[in-house]
Amino acid sequence: MADTRILTAGDSALLVEFGKEINPEINQRISAVVQILKEQHIEGLVDIIPAFCSLLINYDPRVIPYEEIKERMERLTKVDMKADNGKKKVFEIPVCYGGEYGPDLAHIAAHAGLSEEEVIQIHSCTDYLIYMLGFLPGFTYLGGLDERIHTPRLASPRIKINAGSVGIGGSQTGIYPVDSPGGWQLMGMTPVKTYDPDRETPILVEAGNYIRFVPVSEAE
Predict the structure, then answer these.
(1) Prediction pTM value
(2) What is the largest CA-CA distance in the chain?
(3) 141, CA 20 to 30 Å: which among 77, 91, 192, 205?
(4) Per-residue pLDDT of the chain in tens (220 residues, 90 and over written 9)
(5) CB of 60 closer than 8 Å to CB of 44
(6) Helix axis angle, 105-112 relative to 116-123, nearest 10°?
């Protein structure tokens, strides 16, 4: 399509830009291309890394030349396609909100002018599109957070946030997959490991999937 550009990214990668906006339609096109590339099992293709508006293709130039991979991508991006409709993959992530697991829930509620229960209801009633993974292994960049609960990041980031913490940072929400520093407002915690290096598939989700947060009690 006219807004798609294919650029070189070093001597063994291509960057395919699908536009300049962050929106579900562009993400759907990226997911469709990723899906087809995986199905084709192209020899010499090393890695496929989707982002908000682009796709990085790493390849081995000793196996597949630049001209061939560029031509393949040009053909793919000219096709009007969508990712598997009807196969929306939603991961339900249980979250224990508030208390010691969500020390900033009261602040999020006060900032929004809502009760804590209303914040939880708003946060858990949306299927969040995973636009991309990054920052940390398995860290999800999610779209769709209700504007009513957008909350600025902490003025002073915490030195350590526990793996499984669920928080809000500005207009985004997400899960910390490993222990790390961070500045997001913490509203709860999940026992689900979105990243486990000892698992056959270390990262639980993929870009193009969805996450739905499900409130649970501490006992649950």
Answers:
(1) 0.80
(2) 59
(3) 77
(4) 457 899 999 999 999 998 888 888 888 888 888 888 888 889 999 999 998 889 999 999 999 999 999 998 988 887 766 555 556 789 999 999 999 999 999 999 999 999 999 999 999 999 999 998 988 888 999 989 999 999 999 999 999 999 999 999 999 999 999 999 999 999 999 999 999 999 999 999 988 899 999 999 998 8
(5) yes
(6) 90
Q: From residue 62, give the alpha-carbon distance in Å to each of 45, 53, 156, 177.
A: 11, 28, 48, 35
- Helix, strand, coil percentages for the chain (3-state, nearest 5): 25, 30, 45
* SS3 at position 32: helix
Strand segments (E) across the chain: 5-8, 13-17, 45-50, 54-59, 90-97, 127-133, 140-143, 158-161, 165-169, 172-175, 180-182, 185-189, 210-215
